[in-house]
Amino acid sequence: MTEARANDRSDFEGLPDDGTAESFPRRKTRVEVDVIGQTPRGPWSDVPDSLWNDWRWQQRNRLRTAEDLAKVITLTDGERRAIEATAGAFRMALTPYYATLMDPQDPDCPVRAQAIPREVELDKVPGDLADPLGEERFMPVPGITHRYPDRVLFYVTHNCPVYCRHCTRKRKVSDPTSAANHDQLEIGLDYIRKHEEVRDVLVSGGDPLTLSDDRLCELLGALREIPHVEVIRLCTRNPVTLPQRFTPELIDRLANFHPLFVHTHFNSPRECTPEAARCLRALADRGLNVANQMVLLRGVNDDARLIRETNVWLLRQRCRPYYLFQADLAEGISHFRVPVQQGLDILRALRGPVSGMAVPTYVIDAPGGGGKIPLVPDYIESRDEEKVVFTNWKGDRYEYPSK
Ligand code: SF4
User: Domain map of the chain by residue range?
Assistant: First the structure.
């Protein structure tokens, strides 16, 4: 992808160089280059743009079997076994677009790690929880999690374009028996109407963008009519897995429900494509504030350099790095977990070399439903009645009076 863009003549503006300084084409800025071109389409190179950019085509042509995948990547024996073995527990599906982000030859590719099952998913380790955040425990009516006083999570679908192997809601996402039917959605809306303390609703799932435009807008419209609902948040990984889903028509319609925020989930520089950049900018242009909720994952982004690269790219697309989540205790994701101390070291390495805008809040969602707890590297060396001694991002020591 990067190579394709680097060789693109559109990196330059103006006429070919005729030897004079004045006529040498202006090199485009990084911000301009981010949105140029397209990700190479691999085995779909013959698919016309009109189909490739049609989210329905992408959904219809999702890869669901080892045979489908074998046309795109060289599967390992372990991956083949895992696809079969995990099908009953948490099925596999990925859009052709997301599949093209994978390295066909590298089983350790960070996109592949997020999308292709591994046999370790079947291992349960001590401490694993089916419902790691206690969402069902705080569920007054089906589909509504009401944990904090002023906000609720509204579960509106069990479907996603790609089933992320590290998903915290594996217990119900992708499972048709957990579908949020019309009656359940009405019950959820009714609960929100009756609870005037709810001023903020997170529309989640699954991925709410798997609903049709009409169904999604109907739901957002019903929420917007509730006088005490101030903020609506749309939690979607579509900018990463299916950016084509955000058509200009849909974005126009979404802009009717402001203040509407979008929470998305980029984890790796490999996901930072021209298609994703165009999607994020189109959302920002219509006033949809997009924030990123990254999950710290072993083998995907457990390196400050990768997180920094992703986050500065996100800022260029006007998407704010919001949270860096410690992976929770969901069953079957122990292979993704990074020790907390390593997470703290990563966060410390982030602060300083880049602006604080690119440094997310590192949080752990307390097991069982305790809510988010920020994890902050310890910059304080000592403190007494007289002074606090701390170190800055370079490790230099400073003192400040205690009172
Ligand atoms: S998009 Fe979100 S809800 Fe869907 S599988 Fe991925 S992490 Fe889970």
Answer: 1-33, 43-375
Q: Which residues line ligand 1 (CB under 6 A)?
A: 160, 163-164, 167, 169, 173, 205-207, 237
What spacing in Å lies between the alpha carbon of 376 and ligand 1's midpoint?
26
Ligand 1 mutation pick, 163, 268, 333, max ligand atoms within 8 A of CB: 163
Q: Is-contact 201 160, C-beta < 8 A?
A: no
DSSP letters of 310-324?
A: HHHHHHHTTEEEEEE
pLDDT in tens, 310-335: 999 999 999 999 999 999 999 999 99
Does pTM surpass 0.70?
yes
> Tokens standing for 17?
């160089």
Cα dist. 178→90, 136, 181, 258 in Å? 13, 12, 9, 29
Fold classification of 43-375 is: TIM Barrel (3.20.20)
Distance, CA of 5 to CA of 9 (rounded, Å): 9
